[in-house]
Amino acid sequence: xxxxxxxxxxxxxxxxxxxxxxxxxxxxxxxxxxxxxxxxxxxxxxxxxxxxxxxxxxxxxxxxxxxxxxxxxxxxxxxxxxxxxxxxxxxxxxxxxxxxxxxxxxxxxxxxxxxxxxxxxxxxxxxxxxxxxxxxxxxxxxxxxxxxxxxxxxxxxxxxxx
Length: 162
Fold this sequence. Notes:
The protein has two domains: 1-35; 39-158, CATH 2.40.50.870. The longest helix is centred in the N-terminal third of the chain and has 33 residues, at 2-34. 23% of the residues lie in helices and 28% in strands. It has 162 residues and is of the alpha/beta class. Strands 2-3-4-6-5 form a five-stranded mixed beta barrel. This is Lipoprotein.
């Protein structure tokens, strides 16, 4: 009888351990599936190239609408008075990304909206911003500026090469 009880206890213990492992691996899979990957994008990917300067938004960028992306760029001094957003551009020193372009819809700039309550002092350093990408024409009510690309940022920090 003792042998029988020991054997039954061992089988139950083994079964419990296996169920525990299955639960952990199932949770691991569910966790991996729920985590979004971050795609690094570049300003040169925003528009198709054309001789007239009026390209189309690329399929690649359209496919990233609503997804997590990261982008490197430089801040412009053009920022709304309420600090609602910051423009990032591909090259340093662009005081106004709209001033030298015939059609402001087709500029390589992205409006970065920092998390509520966050503030970013102007910096000449290259910055790294990541968050959720929004694509499509939108006019800022306060400034009247048109943005084709917006980033609802989770973070914006000085860029550091990896």
